[in-house]
Structure formats: C-alpha cells, structure tokens
Predict the 3D structure of the following.
Amino acid sequence: MLTSSTAERLAATRAPRPSRSLKQEYQEFILQRIEEYKNAIPRGDLLQIGDEAVRELQASAQDQYLLTEVLLLEHVDRIIARRLRLPSFPRWRQKHRALREAQREPTHWGLDHAHPIVAWAPRLEPGDLVVVVGAAALAEALFLAAHDIEVFLVDQDLGAIEAAEGRAVTEQLAGVLQALVISFGSWFPDLSPSLVVLEPRSLADLRAKDRAALIADLKARTRSGGVHIVLSAGAPREVIPLAPEALQALYNGWQLQRSRRSKRSGFTATKPPRQLDTASSVSE
C-alpha cells in the first residue's frame, strides 16, 4: 500500500481485485488481434472466411454434430488466427515477460527516473486502484498499468481517449487500463483510488469553481493515506497551461511535498489518516 499500518488495516476491509493469470492475458491478446483483423478487412472478405469455416466444419463433422452459429464463429476465429500466425502460449509468454520488464522501466515511456510517479509504483499492491486525470498523462498511466495495477484514465476529449485505448491495446495493457470519456464536474465513476495522477492541462479550460469541485470530489473518494500527484503542465499547446501552484490551495490539510528533480515534477499531496485510524495507531 501507499502508506504504513493505517492503509494496511484498510486493505483488509476490502476485497482485492483478483490478479489475472498469464493464460487470461494470452487469451485477451489473441482475441484483440482477431478483432483488429476483422475490423480491418472488407465485409466481403470476412464472409469468405465464414464460407471457408462452413466447408471445413462440414468436412470434419461427418454428421456427428449439428453445425451451430457458435461453432461457426469459433472456427472463423481459428482460421483468422492461422492467417495471422499468432504465437503459441509458450512463445507469447516468453516475449510477454520481456515486454513487461521493459515496460516497468520509466524510460520505455519517455519518463525520467526522477519522475514523481516512479517512487510510488512499487508501493502499490493488488487491490489498489489508480485514477489518471488527463490523457496528456497517458505515459504515466501506461507505466503504472505495467505494474499490474488497475488504472482508470479519464478525459473530456473523445479523440484522446480513443487514441489512449489504441495504445493500450498495442502495448498489451488494455486489460488493466480503462480509458473513459467524462464531462468534468457533471459525473465521475464510483472509484476509490489509492493514487491519483492529475495533469493540469486537462483542467485548464474549467471554471475555477468547477475545478475546485472536481478536485474536492477526487479528494473525498481517495482512500485514507492515499496520494495525489499533480504534474507540471509541460509545454503549452492550444491552451494556456495551468501551473501546479494554482492547485496547491485546494489541498489544504493534506501533506504537501514539492520536487524539481524532474521536468514533470509538480507536487505530491498525501491524504491524512482518518481520525479513527489515527486514534487506533496511537493505541497500538
């Protein structure tokens, strides 16, 4: 967990998300590649594969079973897998492990080792959840997802979210990273994150009161002892960047820490333990 005994006691009260097996990840990889192929070819070509599947099944069935739609769809997938020469599980597993090892290095995503999220990634455990606000922090979201932590990336830009989903599929991280389009200030998914990463550019065009309301909502949802990492705004594009300093006042009562060792350093805010938790710690 992100903090000490307080967060460990809280972890015992919630059911952790079951970790996925390599077999499950392999099946997701195969299905994603097959769906990508289906979406990329003309409908006529897909119908031809269906005809091929019917012929093969009829030749092998010898009237031993009824040709159903389910059997047909499964055989279509097998034909596509053959055409794509998708790897066997042992070969995929070997490459997958090497890929994950590379993805857990910040430099794989263009991040430096002094980046504020690098020190927090190893402290996360199964059952923890990360919210990343702003698609401009996609590299940070993917880096955290590569540590087998469930990550929700939220943004108001549909195009940016669709691009994030595509990158997650390419990096074989779609199973642990979910990208959602939301309208800041009107609705937020029912999540209780241990870590929130906030890219200020995503909030730059909000009214001050809407920005404050969003951060207040995120603070309330964050687990006791959880952490918010507010990144630097980076280089401006079409909008005037929002400096992290403009958000510090919204974290009154949280423990703040600043670092300028990385170009993405803004500040880190830690949520204080609940009063009941603090009392329990003192009594131990």
In short: The two ends are 19 Å apart (CA to CA). Residues 3-16, 275-284 have pLDDT under 50 and may be disordered. The chain is about 45% helix and 10% strand.
